[in-house]
Design brief:
single chain, 165 residues, alpha+beta, 5-stranded antiparallel beta sheet
């Protein structure tokens, strides 16, 4: 299974006041709050963790068909991070998801999969042949493939559609 999320940093600066009192505590676990406080660019860490949670949530929603806003239920663990890329894990109840995030000056794009092997097989595709089921979950259909997992994310100037090779 696959999920992704993209954050347009320019758009988030216009729409979000992530540093307002109480918001970080509402959205992030104490360990995640510590990561935000300790990172040299707290804004980037906020959106990195948020995009990891959103990408993992898309898999959780696909698995359970449960739609709920409970970001603290999704717990991020960063395995490695540098200026342009981060790898991590997100746990939600008994589920574990693996994430890869690309960080640029314009956006942050996280991809989550339910297995580490699947993370190595993700590709970006065009948004055609996509249908949604009654739960709003997207699938790709082509002349040779029916109902292949796909994830769509858009924010501001950016849209990403991903699936597996």
């Amino acid at each position: 299974m696959i999920g992704n999320d993209i954050v347009d940093l320019a758009q988030s600066r216009l729409e979000s006041r992530w540093s307002r009192k109480g918001l970080i505590e509402k959205l992030f676990t104490p360990q995640e709050q510590q990561l935000i406080r300790n990172y040299h660019d707290p804004e980037i860490m906020v959106w990195l963790l948020w995009s990891m949670k959103e990408a993992a949530y898309k898999i959780y929603n696909r698995q359970t068909k449960i739609r709920e806003f409970s970001p603290q239920k999704l717990k991020c663990n960063l395995i490695s991070i540098n200026a342009i890329e981060a790898f991590g894990e997100v746990s939600c109840l008994q589920n574990k998801y693996y994430t890869q995030t690309i960080i640029s000056t314009e956006n942050i794009h996280s991809i989550a999969t339910n297995t580490l092997e699947n993370l190595n097989n993700v590709i970006e595709i065009e948004k055609k042949g996509i249908i949604k089921d009654k739960f709003g979950i997207p699938y790709l259909t082509t002349s040779t493939i029916t109902f292949k997992n796909v994830s769509i994310s858009n924010h501001g100037r950016f849209e990403k559609v991903v699936t597996y090779k």
